[in-house]
Amino acid sequence: MKDIKKPSVTGLEGVVAADTAISLVDGDKGHLVLRGYWAKELALKHAFEEVAHLIWRGSLPSDDQFNQLKKKLANERDLPEYTINILKQLPEQMDMMSVLRALVGTFVLEGARWPPTLDQAVAITAKIPTIIAYRHRLIQGKALVAPKANLSHIENYLYMLSGEAPQPAHVQALEAYSILTMEHGMNASTFTARVISSTESDIVSAISGAIGAMKGPLHGGAPSGVIEMLEEIGNKEQVEAWIRGALERGERLMGFGHRVYKTHDPRSLALKEMIGSLEGQDEWLDLAYEVEKQAVELLEEFKPGRRLYTNVEFYAAAIMRAVQLPEQLFSPTFTLSRTVGWTAHVLEQAENNRIFRPQSTYIGRTPN
């Protein structure tokens, strides 16, 4: 029997798997375009529902369309009674991403199994924050907080988690983060959703699979290291000394550098500008802003030419800490926003569908 030479490239890196009109990610130039708009401008000037309309339908909404979508999302927030019953029976040690994967799989949506519809996409997107909030409060032994139809998507999520009206600065910060993480090209979870959809399976299965991919730490891992760093620094007066000491010891600064973006992460730039506009409204956001400013200068001093800038996880951590989300809700909150992108890709896949059927290179032994 003879050996087969192992290929040098795996993981499909650099392989084009589909045409899409939803987003453009250019890591070399630091560009993120959503349906023909700069993601940064969308995050700074538009609401979550407006950008969701853009991602799903290809255009920003009129005032009437915006109000209609807000109403649709609000009307779909309630969970079916059978889903709530299952939620209450799940073991306490089950992690939140596994809970999401399991409960999304229980959804029975109106309409045909194939092709998927926009109404189905809206229904799934609306219900995911409710699952997160209900599970979080059940684990804490607290009463469930029903959704409020008069609140926006992000405002309602924060309200259901705490049972109290959220601070406007927190809503604004989390909404900007949610817009910037809503869609990001052909990543692992999006590819998973499109592969499942290409078999003409239903949208619920596609999103359940995407959640499974997001659960992996190499894709949807929580930025806990950034929070630990910010908590160790403690206040703005300690920033320079702490960072300089860390760099002198050869330690890595968490939240700096990105696998895709070789220059500034455009999502980080948008969050930096938005958080800068909220100066004085939250101490954690203020601290993150000062850390980013001094860290970039010191990184250039210690590692000239490396072009190490903040990634989206840096400001995501600051925002999660400011709105008092525990670490176990970081990836689920990311999922809350990315569901819009996933469902948009499922809808796009159905428009010109062809089943994904890639080849593999056999590297085992063959008989003589």
Automatic annotation (TrEMBL):
InterPro entries listed in its UniProt record: Citrate_synth-like_lrg_a-sub, Citrate_synth-like_sm_a-sub, Citrate_synthase, Citrate_synthase_AS, Citrate_synthase_bac-typ, Citrate_synthase_sf
Keyword Acyltransferase assigned:
yes
Q: Domain of life here? A: Bacteria
Molecular function GO labels: citrate synthase activity
Q: Which reaction does it catalyse?
A: oxaloacetate + acetyl-CoA + H2O = citrate + CoA + H(+)
Q: Is Acyltransferase among the key words of this record?
A: yes
- Listed pathway(s): Carbohydrate metabolism; tricarboxylic acid cycle
Alphabetic keyword roster: Acyltransferase, Transferase
The Swiss-Prot or TrEMBL record describes its family as follows: Belongs to the citrate synthase family.
Protein name as it appears in the record? Citrate synthase
